[in-house]
Amino acid sequence: MTTVTDSPILHLKDYGQSVWMDNLSRDLLNAGELQQLIERRDVHGITSNPAIFQKAIAGNAVYDSDIEAGIRAGKSVEEIYESLVFEDIRRACDVLMPVYQETQGKDGYVSLEVPPSLAHNAEATLQEAKRYKAAIDRPNLMIKIPGTSIGLKAVEQAIRAGISVNVTLLFAVHSYVETAWAYIRGLEARVADGEDISQIASVASFFLSRIDTKVDDRVDELIAQTDDAERRARLEAVKGKVAIANAKLAYQEYKEIIQSDRWQALAEKGATVQRLLWASTSTKNPNYSDVMYVDELIGSDTVNTLPPSTIEACADHCDVDSRIEQNVDEAYVLIQSLPELGINLDQVMDELLSEGIDKFIQPFDQLMDSLVMKVKQLSPA
Fold first, then answer.
1. Ordered per-residue pLDDT tens for the chain, 381 residues
2. Which of 111, 149, 229, 360 is the right S-S partner for 116, CB 3.0 to 4.6 Å?
3. φ/ψ (deg, to 5) at 150
4. DSSP state, residue 8
């Protein structure tokens, strides 16, 4: 096992990349594990989502005393849910506050998602974002908003209102570009309002492994439909390559956007760049490297959010080097070759976005159902 002092994960920052963790629970906080990860693994932020909280809260007795307190106070199940989650978020923000201060607001954030059921309602999303910000009352809180066309309307207004935003569920490069410009428009509106923009941060969460999983499934279907050896070989060569190529093209768009006159004008007023954040970074296919979505996407002004198992894998055997701009021409060729191979990447991305929202709605509903049962169990007879 690699020692802490020479762990590869500690050197990602040498290339301008921050490590955030895709996990949060009260057990993690109570045991002091988050503080240890900051010190030993250079974790500089936390992302959460309904699936993470469903796993953390459902069936976990550590929350029972707070649930009982909510029952005695006459709170609804929804209010009890928020009291549990908001407490965990506040505590995580407090643990990460020194990171936030040391990095002058670049890192140290904890992300909390608005209810996924609001994904198609921009005004309701904005109002919840404002309410969450006021209730949690921590400068290093980021509100997660899905990067749908409707969600981006809320993103723009949230930035204008001074809320730091994690734009989530980005798959297509054009969706990232739209996200970047929504951030810029929000900052421009805030400047026009005469407000400070130097304390606002944003990340654009670009999902990875889900892309390869879905594309690989399509590739396997196409391989099964042909006896042409050359075509089968070309299809086989695509497997496990699309997500990283797609991310590299998004990074090229990022570089172009920050060179624009509109961005430069905001930067002169103290604006911070909206960093690309690599999400969904646990490798689903056991035939692929368990750190492939780290090694291949290290670069300046990026964040990689990792589940605990990938953090430990990277600490042990990441091959750290700046690769985000390596093989970019090959990435363009790969993406451009997909239609002739029978793979409609736009369709893949649309499916992933729709499925992504469902993957947050379902655990949220399951969590609420489990809380209803828990309230019944803990309520006095």
1. 444 567 999 999 999 999 999 999 999 999 999 999 999 999 999 999 888 888 888 888 999 999 999 999 999 999 999 999 999 999 999 999 999 999 999 999 999 999 888 988 999 999 999 999 999 999 999 999 999 999 999 999 999 999 999 999 999 999 999 999 999 999 999 999 999 999 999 999 999 999 999 999 999 999 999 999 999 999 999 999 999 999 999 999 999 999 999 999 999 999 999 999 999 999 999 999 999 999 999 999 999 999 999 999 999 999 999 999 999 999 999 999 999 999 999 999 999 999 998 888 898 899 899 899 989 999 986
2. 360
3. -75, -40
4. G
SS3 assignment for 145-160 = EECCHHHHHHHHHHHH
What's the whole-model pTM score? 0.95
User: What's CA 192's distance to the chain center, in Å?
Assistant: 29
> Domain 8-208+254-324+354-378 has what CATH class?
alpha beta
3-state DSSP assignment of residue 46:
strand
Report the alpha-carbon distance of residue 326 to residue 220 in Å, rounded: 28
Residue ranges of the domains in the chain? 8-208+254-324+354-378
- Count the neighbouring beta carbons within 10 Å of the beta carbon of residue 233: 10
Which amino acid, residue 207? F
Looking up tokens 């990171």 gives 99
- 8 Å CB contact between 244 and 293: yes
User: Burial, 251: exposed, middle or buried (Cβ in 10 Å; 0-12, 13-18, 19+)?
Assistant: buried
Separation in Å, CA 297 to CA 17, 104, 137, 251, 281: 9, 24, 33, 9, 11
| Catalytic residue IDs | 144
Residue 272: half-sphere exposure toward Cβ, Cα within 13 Å: 20
Rounded to a whole number, what is the distance in angstroms from the first to the last CA of the chain?
Answer: 53
Q: How far, CA to CA in Å, does 371 sit from each of 54, 117, 245?
A: 10, 18, 41
